[in-house]
Predict the 3D structure of the following.
Amino acid sequence: MQTNSITSDAASAAVPAGISARQVGRFALRYALVIILALFLVTLAVSNHSFLTFSNMNVILIQVAANALLATGATFVILTGGIDLSVGSIVGLSGVVAALFAQDDGAITCTEAVVLGVLAGTAIGAFNGLLVAFARVPPFVATLGNMTVASGLAFVASDGQPISGLSDQFLALSGTIFGISIPVAVMIVVVVVAWIILARTKFGMHIYAVGGNPQAARVAGVNLRANRFAVYTISGLLAGVAGVILAARATAGIATNGTGYELNAIAAAVIGGISLAGGRGSIIGTVFGFLIIGVLDNGLNIINVSPFYQLIVKGLIIIGAVFVDSVMNRSDD
């Protein structure tokens, strides 16, 4: 009896009053992204002294900028319980369209070329929205179909060749402003605006409601069709912006520029805690998601890890993130 009493007292001392083991576990899961990112940074810094330098950190931010835009769009879509597989092809199409009108001998300005490129992406996104929200085509099917359509349009518009000879004004989009890389500046602005929308507006609240409980949202007066249409349009718009930025960085509009990017975008959102079931997660988690992927890609390249092994590592991380999401969902039941 006395031994049991001593054991009980020791357990009470190990866990502060009012805090259960379950709460400690949830705390660890909640801040797992911070811990994982910190571990990656420390491990890679120890492995290669050139990793944790200002210049390399800047390179990482520039490299993740496009994926950050796509992951932000994916966050909006997945929060409603949807999926968008077309953004990679939209990146290629938008870059090609912008490049066609941004050539040195073009008749329109650089600004107009950028707008046309972004509009091309927005149009495909809106078409996705129409199919999902109004025609009730399953998101996977609708966006998979438009992935092929957008890719085909990009190849037709470019005749399968890179569109080069771009104006200096257009190429300047890959430069700096006030000492900050323009792609990084765009990324920061987009993430901040997305956070405000999702955390501080009625539209953001409706997005969570549509993904969390569509029936309850409908009863509460939320327009499910309008919200679903909006998130796919936003995803297309951000993919269009990413396409223009990548075309400027590559100094050419290339139809295949965004190949595979949709997987990285979805991976960043899922790693960041956006539930594939919808209605759960935050843009802050997505930020950690695309930073983890960016740090991992850059660090593994620096220490000369084979790209094939990098794919395996990234896949295992995605599986782990989905497992954590599954655990979190079970713990709420």
